[in-house]
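ok posting inputs for the alpha-D-glucopyranose job
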Amino acid sequence: MQTSESIHPDKNTEKGSKTQHGRQVGTVRQVLQRSGYLELLCDGVAIVLQFVHPQILRMRVTGSLVVANTSSTAAVALTSVVPVEATLFEDEGYLQWATDFLLVKIYKERFKLEVYDVEGKLIYSLESIVSFANGQTIAQVSKFSLEHFYGLGEKTGFLDKNGEKYNMWNSDVYAPHVPEIKALYVSIPYVLHTHQNGVYALFIDNPSESVFDLQSSSDTYQIQTAVGDFDAYCITGKTMKDVISNYTVLTGKIPLPPAWSLGYHQSRYSYMNQEEVVDLAKTFREKGIPCDAIHLDIHYMNEYRVFTFDNGRFPNPQGMVRTLGEQGFHIVPIVDPGVKRDPRYEIYREGIAEDHFCKYIEGNIFYGHVWPGESAFPDFSDDLTSAWWGEKHKFYTDIGIQGIWNDMNEPAVFNTTKTMDLEVIHRNQGQPKTHFEMHNLYGMLMTRATYEGMKTLLKDQRPFILTRAGYAGVQRYAAVWTGDNRSFWEHMEMSVPMLLNMGMSGLAFAGADVGGFAHDVTAELLVRWTQLGALLPFFRNHSALDTARQEPWQFGDKVESLCKSAIQLRYQWLPYLYTLFFEASQTGIPIIRPLVLEYPEDPNVTNLSDQFLLGKDILVAPIFRPSMYKRLVYLPKGRWVNYWSMEECEGEAYRVVDAPLEIMPIFIRKGAILPEHPVAQSVSFQNVETLSFAIYGVPLDQPYRYTLYEDDGVSYNHLQGGSNLFEVSLEPVSVNQARLSYRYLQYGYQVSYSSRVFKFKTLKTPERFVVRGMKRVEFAELAHSEQGYALNSSKNEVWVKLSADLSAAVLELEWGEG
Ligand code: GLC
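and the output
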């Protein structure tokens, strides 16, 4: 329980952020044009300006006048700066620095920086910078009219962050998903600002504490860093999507994950022993509920020592992993950073002998209490330590494990500050820094060590890493889950805008604990949450010790079958989902998207927090309240097909939609082509027998093109051309005629299926449907025919089946009444 101390006037002094008198960055005294960058010498500070990419301006404000070192933190993935041609124009009062994309104007008298786009529109205006003797910097940035703020990583609240104030300080707060929580486990000091003139994002590469205040003033918003350089990247682009994509040019994109990690994950704190895990797996298969991963929480270890198994509870982990592997399950054990202080424990001994643990400046090791009791923490800022940690995962890979779950890596410590002492020193590759200066990087650096170690150990198989803590760029190494939520309807609701903003902050592979972690789930909440989770990028059911069990079958047959159907839908849409993951790995565009990302001109969607798009074609409107069997859905521009009823609706309109317990409202963009796999018990692209494309809404009135991505889902062959891009196009020819064509844009992976089926879905089956030059057969015959088309009258679908050879094809389709 909190006491009144939590409103103590000096409560912020602990991390040195007590308000002091600051000094404004004033007159620019000297401008030095260096090769590739500009150096502005101002009173007491130097400002380095550099285009690191044609659309990204870096501005580093540094207290020291030695500016030669331009290194960034591990957030930045862009290693070689793209040389950008820029012309400098200097006048008495200001400087202009122009590229083909941007014009930067700097006022010399009282430092101010503006960025204009090619049309001369003011996009970004940095009004002032004030620096303080204690290391703090405060920047004021202009607000505009018609503006909205997104991004900011993992934060509570609604989609549009205007009017909010958040801290960036990775924090383990138990049961934290409430609106007043300012800091969660992940910190992404990045804000995406759209306004009347355009859009840009600001990323402040500072892994100490920062505050984003979009609340206190209506003219400006304020960013405050606690210590260290104010290293700001202004990321521009024509659209929000461009800006997000450019942000991931800077901080990296998700690697294409192993396909199994897109399946359903089942977890519990904890499955206590081998028998329980084996039984769990058996139950999934007996009940025919698809599942790809089972997570092992801390009880698998010998008294919570990482890189060990409790041999009493798990007498034969290798056998267990093998047997379950044969049934299509992957085991994902938890690995925390705290290494138990125990002189008989090999990892601890090695860590001491090889000097891997974080220390105070005086040389004594920092010990903190976590699950194993007193523990030491590896210094992941040191490459040797990271390599050591990475190699230790051989313990897991030797027995067939391919996925690791990193937790408690804020790092969480059971003390009053809830983390490592701030004066602990990180070696940081020869540039030592205090934990205070580097706090937000700790989790990401652990995850990087884990990912790189696993990648080396698994050789030609892709690893899966899950993390709780992170910083900008963590997407390059791990999926993120949102930590310890509760089985509250409100927490499920809040997870949607949180995950949408995470997606817009580079974290494309993310999810929340389905069913809720703490507290007791109810039957209805489990159904609704499973329906939602099935269409989020990361899909794991996880719950805490002593809470109600929440595996899909815990609430009787009806709930089981509803959860099963929801999970099956995900498996049906795996090729669609996997293609979205591929696209995210190439472009950085998130897998789930707020409507505003696809429809930025629509004023109705700027703060729409309770609906989202999966890709651009599937609109999801989850149910967030008990006993609610209808909901209001906003459909954006265009025509939309209700997935459940096939009813067509006109967009730019609100509709009240039916949502009995078995239905979470889903709409498909009319004319969309969605690839489907037959529902399997686990993901394996090598066993798919038929690939289908569902086409929503005949008659077709608009051309549509879809490109499916395929590879083996496990190896790196796709990096050497071992992948396919298969394009399907539909073009209306007249009211009752269309042309369907398909071809490989790229072919390098041999698929397992021998036929493709195109399923034309309609509200009312057309009385006449002809595919020119093809044989019409009875529906029952289609399964045995190599090709042909048939009417599936029970579903109002026309199926066209063709063999899945390499050739391209064009089909002439005709339909109509009578
Ligand atoms: C933390 C994690 C949770 C896990 C628990 C025990 O609370 O967030 O997911 O189950 O630790 O390891």
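notes: Residues 269, 297-298, 334, 407, 468, 483-484, 517, 542 surround alpha-D-glucopyranose (CB under 6 Å). The first helix runs from residue 240 to 251.
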